[in-house]
Amino acid sequence: MASKCEENITLPDGRNVKTITSVVEANEKDVDIAVEAATKAFNEKWIHVNGQERGRLINKFADLLERDLDELAAIEALDNGKAYTIAKSEDLPFTITVFRYFAGWCDKIHGKVIETQGDKFCYTRHEPIGVCGAIIPWNYPLLMVAWKLGPALACGNTIVLKTSELTPLTALKVAALFKEAGFPKGVVNVLSGFGPTAGAAIASHMKIDKVAFTGSTTTGRSIMKAAADSNLKKVSLELGGKSPNIILADSDLEEAVKWAYQGIYANHGQCCCAGSRVYVEDSIYDNFVEKFKTYAQNIKVGDPFHKDTFQGPQISQRQFDRIMGYIEAGKKEGATLLLGGKRHGDKGFFVCPTIFTDVVKFYSKHIYSYELLYDFLLCNIFKNENMTIMQEEIFGPVVAIAKFKTIDEVIEKAHLTKYGLAAAVFTKDITRAIKISNALRAGTVWVNCYNVVNTNAPFGGFKESGFGRELGKYALELYTQVKTVQINL
Ligand code: NAD
């Protein structure tokens, strides 16, 4: 539980900070206790609760989220640093919609009667998996709770949820609301803990039947290994991205700029599907860049509780340093820093909205070292856009803008990372929109918009952005297993 504890402390690096609260850190033993509670609740209570009743409980819980919307938005802003007005107008309503959507599915999950040869009667049942572990990141603390718990509970599973060590607060408040809504004890268990301890204990637990993870690709890999080395629990992974946003010359330029800006700067750039690589067709490139820069210059960065704030602080010192490291790499590798590239203000983890251009290395002459020769080969033969800022997920308000000449060229460039979470294309030509959307290897492609995530539609990654689809009917497949019953008549 969180406890109030306002005091000034000095960190080892000398910074003076104010603690707003402290939470108990869950360790491996706490995971065992939570798993035991979830197992008992699954076998003795939850399995006997029918779909209609599960739906009623989830809707009751959603009513409580609505009742406490203001308070939850404020906790979310404190927890994560996102703007209170955005938490209130976007994160909270989306969270509630997700729970209500899955409440609607509870009594509609059913199998089929299957025709077989002879006098056998065959049918299938879609049964819950059992105890599900959920490990979530810090960028959308409340929404990630909804994306995992909504479908898991609708399908009749019990849960052991571990929040990010950086954002434990809203989930603790939510745990109290589950209790108030009347969920049986042990159905939802929330732990605040660190990844290598509590997180790893969930991934390798012999009595957890499935683990649903959202976070970095590196951690996703270790979770899969842990699942394989323990009880082969089912795994679903929502991982990182480096999404391309393609702007064609025939697009509505004002609209393209507006969406591209949302695409990268929403949530301070801490968005798995952030459109961090913008490709603009040659003939409109200069115009686009100028307009985009004007938008970015006007972003209100600052106090999450100020009504005009669009961008609050980054989540942590580590993340701030990481972003600054990428900005330095961009400069060092020869990209042009068009805007930002530095701390906003003189304290806190605020980063100025940043734009890089000239982000593709080009060598045609002056190769005077083996290192440059290697780069040349990567760039020109393997067409690898090897600037670090074009390859790695920065997870901050930093965009790289590049030019292209032909559609085939930009599709090829779009594929030059290990990720495949999302992509976007802007054009008024529906034929080209469809051609490019079909060609892109990404779990979501937006046409003439960005970051539009719909509760009814699946969301998930291609390539190293993970597997499994959250949201929509597809999410039910992640939390059920199919049983075939054959009856000899
Ligand atoms: P992270 O991988 O460091 O941490 C995510 C969660 O995993 C945290 O709860 C953490 O405590 C836990 N964890 C860390 N090490 C672990 C281990 N060894 N075993 C088990 N659990 C462990 O990621 P993050 O920094 O919190 O989040 C940022 C990343 O998440 C970005 O790469 C981003 O793209 C990705 N992300 C993806 C989506 C998506 O839907 N695809 C959504 C949000 C964030």
TrEMBL record:
The active site is at residue 238. The keyword Flavoprotein does not apply. PROSITE patterns: ALDEHYDE_DEHYDR_CYS (PS00070), ALDEHYDE_DEHYDR_GLU (PS00687). It comes from the Eukaryota. Residues 16-360, 384-485 form the Aldehyde dehydrogenase domain. Keywords: Oxidoreductase. Belongs to the aldehyde dehydrogenase family. This is 33952_t:CDS:1. It comes from Gigaspora margarita.
